[in-house]
């Protein structure tokens, strides 16, 4: 198969021929029709993720495609099914999985991190009966691929972890793929959304997604501007980027009893959090890590009903030949970039 791979962290990303994967007895191999370019892939390429232990490595973790083959123990899927997967692939049997919290599975695997990922023509997925999600026939692969990480992650962060309610103020720090998804979902939930980013193009996309107030992160005190716009602070503030600066600004943007949701991955090193404000204002600090496959139906129903439009967030589609350059310069093009691995080079 053709795939994008790297031999050293931060090194060249090139397209090469690699062996096709085979399904584990409980797993499946997916023919990748679309895969998203995500900042988490950049972190993995830079060596920030301890799950990547063996090089060369193939990145990519949000995907949609067609089941190519299944293992001997798989009961619910046959070749030819149109599917996506959550980026956290659960085992289905650990204590967290048994209680329904597959997104924090104790034996989770993640394509693009624990094993070769979806910047390739084929990818192996573990525990297919737990992790594969059927996608509607009228949903294109590019839209479905974005659900596996960014959109589903934002959906759970907004609706389930942040518990956003109608009329509340929500601040979204970082309007990349996750942030724009969070803006759209919070707006659909009836919230008033403040979008924060250093890119005017990204803020324009946030306006299209439903944000009504905007803060340029490169101009002045971000948290003070959010508090002023919201007359005292956001009820919910989401760090969708992941940096010490955006994390601190998100916490400081909150009103008393507010909820901070950390979604963006933070690179190694100290992350100062204004704990005096957390204590004095009784703030809640929450983490959100993807969404389990069994939790997808409400989100898919909102998409089917035309309440959510994840397809509007895709601003660029490229082939494998351009994937390495795009990953190295991630953030330079607003919106969501999709890769079509089977397109001609």
UniProtKB/TrEMBL annotation:
<keyword id="KW-0479">Metal-binding</keyword>
<protein>
    <submittedName>
        <fullName>Alcohol dehydrogenase</fullName>
        <ecNumber>1.1.1.1</ecNumber>
    </submittedName>
</protein>
<dbReference type="Pfam" id="PF08240">
    <property type="entry name" value="ADH_N"/>
</dbReference>
<dbReference type="InterPro" id="IPR013154">
    <property type="entry name" value="ADH-like_N"/>
</dbReference>
<feature type="domain" description="Enoyl reductase (ER)">
    <location>
        <begin position="10"/>
        <end position="339"/>
    </location>
</feature>
<keyword id="KW-0862">Zinc</keyword>
<dbReference type="InterPro" id="IPR013149">
    <property type="entry name" value="ADH-like_C"/>
</dbReference>
<dbReference type="InterPro" id="IPR002328">
    <property type="entry name" value="ADH_Zn_CS"/>
</dbReference>
<keyword id="KW-0560">Oxidoreductase</keyword>
<dbReference type="InterPro" id="IPR036291">
    <property type="entry name" value="NAD(P)-bd_dom_sf"/>
</dbReference>
<dbReference type="InterPro" id="IPR011032">
    <property type="entry name" value="GroES-like_sf"/>
</dbReference>
<dbReference type="InterPro" id="IPR050129">
    <property type="entry name" value="Zn_alcohol_dh"/>
</dbReference>
<dbReference type="Pfam" id="PF00107">
    <property type="entry name" value="ADH_zinc_N"/>
</dbReference>
<comment type="similarity">
    <text>Belongs to the zinc-containing alcohol dehydrogenase family.</text>
</comment>
<dbReference type="GO" id="GO:0008270">
    <property type="term" value="F:zinc ion binding"/>
</dbReference>
<dbReference type="GO" id="GO:0004022">
    <property type="term" value="F:alcohol dehydrogenase (NAD+) activity"/>
</dbReference>
<dbReference type="InterPro" id="IPR020843">
    <property type="entry name" value="ER"/>
</dbReference>
């Amino acid at each position: 198969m053709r795939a994008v791979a790297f031999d050293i962290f931060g090194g060249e990303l090139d397209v090469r021929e690699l062996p096709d994967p085979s399904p584990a007895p409980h797993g499946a191999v997916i023919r990748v029709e679309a895969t998203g370019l995500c900042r988490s892939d950049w972190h993995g390429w830079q060596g920030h993720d301890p799950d990547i232990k063996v090089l060369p490595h193939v990145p990519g973790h949000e995907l949609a495609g067609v089941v190519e083959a299944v293992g001997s123990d798989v009961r619910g899927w046959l070749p030819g099914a149109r599917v996506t997967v959550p980026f956290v692939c659960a085992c289905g049997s650990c204590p967290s999985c048994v209680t329904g919290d597959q997104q924090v599975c104790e034996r989770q695997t993640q394509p693009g991190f624990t094993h070769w990922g979806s910047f390739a023509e084929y990818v192996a997925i573990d525990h297919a009966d737990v992790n594969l999600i059927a996608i509607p026939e009228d949903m294109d692969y590019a839209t479905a691929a974005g659900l596996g990480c960014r959109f589903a992650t934002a959906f759970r962060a907004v609706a389930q972890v942040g518990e956003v309610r109608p009329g509340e103020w929500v601040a979204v720090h970082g309007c990349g793929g996750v942030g724009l998804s969070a803006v759209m979902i919070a707006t659909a939930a009836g919230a008033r959304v403040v979008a924060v980013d250093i890119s005017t193009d990204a803020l324009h996309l946030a306006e299209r997604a439903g944000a009504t107030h905007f803060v340029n992160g490169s101009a002045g005190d971000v948290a003070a501007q959010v508090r002023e716009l919201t007359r005292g602070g956001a009820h919910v503030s989401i760090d969708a980027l992941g940096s010490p600066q955006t994390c601190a600004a998100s916490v400081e943007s909150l009103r008393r009893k507010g909820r901070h949701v950390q979604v963006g991955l933070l690179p190694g090193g100290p992350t100062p959090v204004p704990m005096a404000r957390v204590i004095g204002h009784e703030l809640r600090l929450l983490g959100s890590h993807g969404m389990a496959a069994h939790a997808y139906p409400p989100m898919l129903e909102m998409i089917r009903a035309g309440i959510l439009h994840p397809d509007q967030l895709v601003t660029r589609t490229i082939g494998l030949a351009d994937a390495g350059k795009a990953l190295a310069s991630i953030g330079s093009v607003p919106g969501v970039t999709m890769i079509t691995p089977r397109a001609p080079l």
